[in-house]
Amino acid sequence: MTAEIIYGDKLAESLRLEMKSEVETLKEKGITPKLTVVLIGDDPASKSYVSGKQKAADFIGIDSTLLSLPTSTTEHELLNTIDQLNRDTKVNGILVQLPLPAHINEQHVIEAIHPNKDVDGFHPISIGRMLTQQETFLPCTPYGILTMLQSKNIEISGKHAVIVGRSNIVGKPVGQLLLNNHATVTYCHSRTPNMTEYTKQADILIVAVGRANMIGADAVKAGAIVIDVGVNRIEDGSLTGDVDFDSVKEKASFLTPVPKGVGPMTITMLMKNTIKAARDQAE
Ligand code: NDP
């Protein structure tokens, strides 16, 4: 079997076109969605993520502002900045680019963002709403993965989904979203012994660890749907995922590539959340 490749970049492109016309309609009603991105310091990876987000916003017609603050910014100063953005009625969505310098407590910052402007979907209120299946901002990477599965009409209900990785931003919430869609969910992590015993049972396998090519064909069931979230820079400078693409492609029924897979979808869902924020706040 050769897997059908789910190209996130192509799907992202068509979704962004749809959002562009949605924003045009909103603008005719006097609503211009506005996203403010806060970047602390000058980490090159963070800078590149932020510029990807701004490019997407520009294309769609979302008004995006970058607030670039020095590494020396204190937690108190950052919390004050967030407080001002929370009060600014023109700002619909606030995103603080993670990771933050070690002297700033990430959780304090996440919880300072007003839940109505939490377009990253990381606030405990957003997570709690997702858990209890209320309307909310879904975290962007899990939301992107769900959208990729839905774009191929992949049935989730009744499937065994195995998630490798349990971070708050990817592993845990993607498992929860699949559970909400009636999958049976198993989580694997660094303390899971004999992990391939679980991964080999997966109808849907989601890998979000950050270890290049850690999942080979021997860890995958024939016909499985495999979503590779990992992004790893290897020695030759190129990017690769957590899944050994070439071997798994010959065994899976669907597979996402790295790059051009989940990454572009993450940014796209951030835009979707920002439009939702603008709509909700206008009502
Ligand atoms: P974290 O480092 O926060 O979490 C990694 C998870 O992997 C942890 O739960 C950890 O387990 C688990 N893990 C580590 N080693 C093993 C192992 N040997 N076997 C099984 N599980 C293991 O990472 P993130 O969730 O933030 O990101 C994961 C990857 O996805 C990274 O490569 C990141 O760059 C990428 N990413 C891509 C995005 C995209 O849009 N494409 C968005 C976000 C992330 P434990 O909890 O026990 O420590």
Structural key phrases:
283 residues, alpha/beta, Rossmann fold, 16% strand, globular, binds NADPH dihydro-nicotinamide-adenine-dinucleotide phosphate, methionine biosynthesis, amino-acid biosynthesis, THF_DH/CycHdrlase_CS, histidine biosynthesis
Structure description:
This protein has about 280 residues and is α/β, with parallel strands linked by helices. The strands form 3 sheets. A 6-stranded parallel beta sheet has the order 1-11-8-7-5-6. Strands 3-2-4 form a 3-stranded parallel beta sheet, sandwiched between helices. It folds into 2 domains: about 30-115, Rossmann fold, CATH 3.40.50.10860; about 140-265, NAD(P)-binding Rossmann-like Domain (Rossmann fold, 3-Layer(aba) Sandwich), CATH 3.40.50. Helices cover about 40% and strands about 15% of the residues.
SSE pattern, N- to C-terminal:
EHEHEHEHHHEHEHEEEEHEH
CATH first level of the largest domain: which class?
Alpha Beta
What's the pLDDT, averaged over the residues? 97
Helix content: 40-55%
Low-confidence stretches: none
Coarse morphology: globular
Classified in CATH, the superfamily of the largest domain is NAD(P)-binding Rossmann-like Domain
Ligands, deduplicated: NADPH dihydro-nicotinamide-adenine-dinucleotide phosphate
Give the assembly state of these chains. single chain
Major sheet: arrangement of strands: 1-11-8-7-5-6
Number of helices: 10
Write the layout of secondary structure elements.
Layout: E1 4-5, H1 8-28, E2 34-40, H2 44-60, E3 63-69, H3 75-87, E4 93-96, H4 106-112, H5 124-131, H6 140-151, E5 160-164, H7 171-180, E6 184-188, H8 195-199, E7 204-207, E8 225-228, E9 232-233, E10 239-240, H9 245-249, E11 254-255, H10 262-282
Parallel strand pairs: 1-11, 2-3, 2-4, 5-6, 5-7, 7-8, 8-11
Antiparallel strand pairs: 9-10
The chain binds NADPH dihydro-nicotinamide-adenine-dinucleotide phosphate (NDP).
